[in-house]
Specification:
With about 180 residues, the chain is of the alpha+beta class. It has three helices and ten strands, in the order βαβββαβαβββββ. The chain binds coenzyme A.
């Protein structure tokens, strides 16, 4: 199976109608009826995406943001992963892991300290080198129904997971996301 999967990297501003046409149903299928039907992001457009293709069929996705965050008073460079998903009939074949491996590869030889994501369930990520951390977070709250700013959130988020891809050490001080929570 692995050799049949190809990962393409696409910058958001290069997404064409054909990709949108296939990506929107995939996101709706994977994230349920709450997913907006008229766009391909929940709260904010990402910077780029990894798209997994089985031959010419789009079967997996992760959106990526490049962000500066503030960890206990120090700037860290972060690759933030959003909406990791694989089409239901293609799951359990390693495609999710391939997408995570691709984000690892992307970070190599780049000035990125950590990969960060928020997950209800940790297994896929733990298996791929992520760990759950306990940081009080500060972030911009966005109402995804009407795309408006709701305010600033400030609390410990149990779903926060990180992977170190540089020299810096993570600590469990305050994490200011300097933006929305993906
Ligand atoms: C999570 C998901 C991307 C995994 O894709 P995948 O191609 O099946 O991943 P892999 O084959 O590399 O690994 C599968 C393992 O991931 C783990 N896993 C399953 N669902 C998961 C989930 N929702 N979150 C985290 N890990 C999950 C299981 O341990 C699974 O092992 P199993 O096949 O023995 O059951 C896919 O299940 C999915 O799209 N789920 C719906 C959307 C979603 O919940 N995304 C996560 C957002 S944080």
């Amino acid at each position: 199976m692995d050799k049949d999967i190809q990962i393409k990297t696409v910058f958001e501003f290069d997404l064409n109608e054909e990709i949108r046409h296939h990506l929107q149903p995939l996101l709706c299928e994977c994230f349920g009826e709450d997913y907006p039907e008229d766009r391909i992001y929940f709260k904010q457009m990402p910077h780029f995406r990894f798209l997994a293709y089985n031959h010419s069929r789009l079967v997996g996705h992760t959106a990526c943001d490049l962000r500066v965050m503030n960890l206990q008073g120090k700037a860290i460079n972060v690759l933030s992963l959003i909406d990791v998903c694989v089409s239901s009939e293609m799951r359990s074949q390693g495609i999710g892991s391939r997408l995570l491996l691709e984000s690892d590869k992307f970070c190599r030889n780049r000035d990125i300290d950590f990969i960060v994501l928020f997950a209800d369930q940790g297994d896929l990520y733990e298996r791929n080198g992520f760990k759950t951390v306990q940081n009080r977070c500060k972030w911009l709250k966005i109402n995804d129904r009407n795309l408006t700013t709701r305010g600033i959130g400030y609390e410990l988020i149990p779903e926060l997971m990180i992977k170190s891809v540089g020299e810096k050490e993570w600590n469990e001080g305050e994490l200011d996301l300097l933006g929305y929570l993906g």
